[in-house]
């Protein structure tokens, strides 16, 4: 079976532009009723709209690609749902749900496709900024439907060096315990003069938007733990298509699956310079204090 | 003399045109292209570019041509300990707010042009050309995003449900302000502390305050900004029902050059806002201290 990735990228792009985006834009900030999960995930929010949008995406994809598997945030069952080698759509109907509830304009929809567990199509759409970033394996990256010249972009940027970089971080929903401590200490190390001494942190509250922004050359890297495959699958395809790399958040985790739960994503470079990228990753890992475990 | 609402509206419109037609395009074109050129001010994270200087010069020329009797304070021409905000109408200008964003092409740099009279902000225009967001307002005239009136929907200002903007800023090291900021960030997040919905960082004081004005954020707290970072957005915030107070405990009345600020959104009552501010202050472990305040 030959799968036309380019056609799938196009199909999903139309779905998010025509159907999903308008709902997210219209409903942003209007949801005063939401479920707060209990315990350590009390600040993890799910709204009715998440569920509605996931249904819409699932149904549309199912009609068009009836043999493909589907993993979505809302239908996910911990310990049961698995990503297999089959073509699998991995979907976050609304990434950045807290942003969505607060009308902070960085919620988006994120739809990825894996084949043999590797992300090969990625579509991210932020309707508030009307920004559509897409990719499929071998076909480069598109921004609002236009081919994005990432090589030219990276040539105009400064060097990829930790102490000259802007790093995206997200504290996430675990707010005490070892992972929280590890994150707080690592943030301090990244800022400290004698350690990472990065130019700055940014926090957009959406993993998908962050990965899209790294691809566009707006950020140099993103370090996080606690995210799920649907938060990163689409962004993973888009970022790697532009020469970026995703490894684990902890030292030495060079090869990770899409559902690794901890991630360090680093942008591409002008000359596809793997050595510079690897040095950046090693320097970053040296600032990680403790270990993120999920 | 006190400027009337009509006079202010007329000035507001002229500034919008200036930013739309002349300043915005320069900032949009030059972002991310000046990495090699920036000169170190205090350390390598405080980046000032040649574009900053030339944009300020352009704005200053426009102002002296159109408003020859008004005073002018700009980031690039400010002299520490000498420049004072007088009672006369004074343009207070940050040619590029979010300079680190500008250098890195993170699309949250903007131009901030405020006008003060009798020491308080009476007009503000903040333009982010990368995502084409023009926030503007003047005393008695309301505030707007791209011509559309900011109307923060009435909703409870509940502390644990809040989305808080915090920045790590330029300061580094284990003492003083850096430590207070790190602790505050942790106290906001921790389930043993405020346990808020989330923290966001955009790297621009003006944009953060405008986002609070629009109700995208519930509050923004920071130490380090100068009068030109906040003058424009203060008026925009207040005209949308928000308040700007001191970031240190007990400081209800601020000078424009307070250096330590807490912005809280509208869409609620004054009593709720005050309660919220006091709650916020209660998490602070000590005062942030900056030179050249007032």
UniProtKB/TrEMBL annotation, chain A:
It comes from Tetrapisispora phaffii (strain ATCC 24235 / CBS 4417 / NBRC 1672 / NRRL Y-8282 / UCD 70-5) (Yeast). It catalyses: a myo-inositol phosphate + H2O = myo-inositol + phosphate. Keywords: Hydrolase, Lithium, Magnesium, Metal-binding. It holds the Pfam family Inositol_P. PANTHER family: INOSITOL MONOPHOSPHATASE (PTHR20854), INOSITOL-1-MONOPHOSPHATASE-RELATED (PTHR20854:SF4). Mg(2+) binds at residues 73, 92, 94-95, 231. GO terms for molecular function: inositol monophosphate 1-phosphatase activity; metal ion binding. This is Inositol-1-monophosphatase. The lineage of its organism: Eukaryota, Fungi, Dikarya, Ascomycota, Saccharomycotina. Its EC number is 3.1.3.25.
TrEMBL record, chain B:
Keywords: Hydrolase, Magnesium, Metal-binding. GO terms for molecular function: inositol monophosphate 1-phosphatase activity; metal ion binding. Its cofactor is Mg(2+). Transmembrane segments: none annotated. It catalyses: a myo-inositol phosphate + H2O = myo-inositol + phosphate. One of its GO terms (biological process) is inositol biosynthetic process. The keyword Metal-binding applies. Pathway: Polyol metabolism; myo-inositol biosynthesis; myo-inositol from D-glucose 6-phosphate: step 2/2. Its EC number is 3.1.3.25. Gene3D superfamilies: 3.40.190.80, Fructose-1,6-Bisphosphatase, subunit A, domain 1 (3.30.540.10). Mg(2+) binds at residues 75, 94, 96-97, 229. Belongs to the inositol monophosphatase superfamily. This is Inositol-1-monophosphatase. The lineage of its organism: Eukaryota, Fungi, Dikarya, Ascomycota, Saccharomycotina.
């Amino acid at each position: 079976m030959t799968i036309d990735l380019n056609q799938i990228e196009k199909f999903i792009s139309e779905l998010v532009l025509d159907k999903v985006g308008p709902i997210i834009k219209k409903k942003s900030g209007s949801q005063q009723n939401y479920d707060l999960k209990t315990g350590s995930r009390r600040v993890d929010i799910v709204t009715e709209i998440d569920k509605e949008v996931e249904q819409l995406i699932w149904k549309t994809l199912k009609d068009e690609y009836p043999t493909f598997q589907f993993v979505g945030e809302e239908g996910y069952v911990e310990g049961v749902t698995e990503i297999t080698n089959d073509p699998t759509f991995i979907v976050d109907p609304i990434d950045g749900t807290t942003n969505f509830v607060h009308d902070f304009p960085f919620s988006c929809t994120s739809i990825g496709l894996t084949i043999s567990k590797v992300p090969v199509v990625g579509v991210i759409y932020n309707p508030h900024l009307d920004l559509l970033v897409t990719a499929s394996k071998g076909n480069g990256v598109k921004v609002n439907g236009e081919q994005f010249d990432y090589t030219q972009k990276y040539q105009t940027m400064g060097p990829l060096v930790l102490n000259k970089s802007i790093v995206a971080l997200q504290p996430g929903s675990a707010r005490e315990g070892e992972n929280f401590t590890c994150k707080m200490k690592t943030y301090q190390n990244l800022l400290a003069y004698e350690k990472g001494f990065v130019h700055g942190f940014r926090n957009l509250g959406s993993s998908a938007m962050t990965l899209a922004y790294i691809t566009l050359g707006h950020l140099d890297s993103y370090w996080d733990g606690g995210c799920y495959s649907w938060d990163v699958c689409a962004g993973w395809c888009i970022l790697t298509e532009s020469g970026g790399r995703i490894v684990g958040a902890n030292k030495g985790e060079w090869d990770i699956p899409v559902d690794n739960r901890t991630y360090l994503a680093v942008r591409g470079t002008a000359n596809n310079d793997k050595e510079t990228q690897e040095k950046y990753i090693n320097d970053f890992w040296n600032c990680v204090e403790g270990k993120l475990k999920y | 003399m006190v400027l009337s609402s009509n006079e202010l509206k007329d000035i507001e419109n002229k500034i919008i045109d200036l930013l739309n037609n002349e300043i915005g395009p320069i900032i949009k074109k030059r972002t991310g292209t000046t990495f090699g050129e920036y000169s170190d001010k205090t350390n390598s994270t405080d980046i000032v570019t040649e574009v900053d200087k030339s944009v300020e010069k352009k704005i200053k020329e426009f102002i002296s041509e159109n408003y020859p009797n008004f005073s002018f304070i700009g980031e690039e021409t400010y002299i520490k300990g000498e420049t004072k905000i007088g009672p006369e109408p004074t343009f207070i200008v940050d040619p590029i707010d979010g300079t680190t964003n500008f250098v890195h092409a993170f699309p949250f740099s903007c131009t901030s042009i405020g006008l003060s009279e009798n020491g308080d902000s009476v007009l503000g225009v903040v333009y982010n050309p990368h995502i084409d967001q023009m926030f503007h307002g003047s005393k008695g005239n309301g505030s707007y995003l791209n011509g559309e009136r900011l109307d923060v929907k009435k909703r409870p200002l509940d502390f644990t449900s809040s989305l808080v903007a915090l920045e790590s800023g330029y300061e580094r090291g284990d003492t003083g302000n850096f430590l207070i900021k790190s602790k505050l960030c942790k106290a906001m997040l921790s389930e043993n502390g405020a346990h808020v919905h989330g923290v966001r960082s955009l790297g621009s004081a003006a944009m953060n305050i405008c986002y609070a004005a629009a109700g995208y954020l519930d509050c923004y707290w920071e130490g380090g900004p100068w009068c030109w970072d906040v003058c424009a957005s203060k008026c925009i915030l207040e005209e949308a029902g928000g308040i700007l107070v001191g970031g240190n405990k007990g400081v209800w009345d601020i000078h424009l050059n307070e250096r330590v600020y807490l912005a809280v959104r509208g869409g609620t009552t004054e009593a709720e806002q005050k309660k919220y501010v006091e709650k916020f202050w209660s998490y602070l472990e000590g005062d942030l201290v900056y030179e050249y305040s007032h």
